[in-house]
């Protein structure tokens, strides 16, 4: 089991499918073709995150999926500022929906607080509308 995870708002994408499409773009990939997310801050607890950790993505106020963290690459922007690229496993794993209030940047997420993966037989289901998913999660059904 992972020692630690990350949680992040998926800014610019509103569904798992739109995240998948965004990550398919060359500008969001490493030289070896893996998806990445570039951020200003470098995690101080990188070793714990790379010991099986994932980044959990929040869409429209709900955690809906995760991707395993593979490594952290240094990226120097055109402005000369050092940034961190979270290099991700291309497999996007749907999770049970969990409500999450808005927050800035990324946060550490303890494994005990992470939503469970959806069972394999449910991973091919169509996504529910965000408002319905939020309402069901709010009353504890999802």
List the helices and strands and how they pair.
Blueprint: E1 5-9, H1 16-23, E2 36-39, H2 46-49, E3 54-59, E4 62-76, E5 82-88, E6 93-99, E7 106-109, H3 130-138
Parallel strand pairs: 1-3
Antiparallel strand pairs: 1-7, 2-5, 3-4, 4-5, 4-6
Protein name: Lysophospholipase
Pfam family, one: DUF1489
InterPro entries: UCP032025
- What's the story with the biggest beta sheet? 7 strands, mixed
How many helices?
3
Mean pLDDT across all amino acids = 88
Portion of residues in beta strands equals 25-35%
Helix and strand content put the structural class at alpha+beta
Number of strands: 7
Give the fraction of residues assigned to helices. 10-25%
Protein name: Lysophospholipase
Organism: Roseovarius halotolerans
InterPro entries: UCP032025
Description of the structure:
Strands 1, 2, 3, 4, 5, 6 and 7 form a 7-stranded mixed sheet that branches. This protein has 3 helices and 7 strands. The longest helix has 9 residues, at 130-138. Strand 4 and strand 5 form a beta hairpin. With 142 residues, it is of the alpha+beta class. It has one domain (5-138).
Short structural summary:
15% of the residues lie in helices and 34% in strands.
List keywords for this structure.
15% helix; 142 residues
């Amino acid at each position: 089991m992972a020692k630690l995870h990350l949680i992040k708002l998926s800014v610019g994408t509103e569904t798992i499918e739109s995240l998948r499409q965004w990550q398919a773009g060359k500008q969001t990939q490493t030289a070896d073709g893996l998806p990445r997310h570039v951020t200003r801050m470098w995690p101080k607890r990188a070793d714990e995150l790379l010991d099986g950790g994932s980044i959990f993505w929040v869409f429209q106020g709900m955690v809906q999926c995760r991707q395993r963290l593979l490594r952290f690459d240094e990226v120097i922007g055109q402005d000369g500022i050092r940034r961190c690229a979270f290099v991700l496993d291309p497999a996007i794993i749907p999770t049970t929906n969990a409500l999450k209030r808005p927050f800035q940047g990324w946060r550490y997420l303890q494994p005990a607080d992470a939503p469970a993966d959806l069972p394999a037989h449910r991973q091919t289901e169509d996504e529910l509308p965000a408002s319905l998913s939020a309402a069901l999660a709010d009353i504890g059904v999802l």
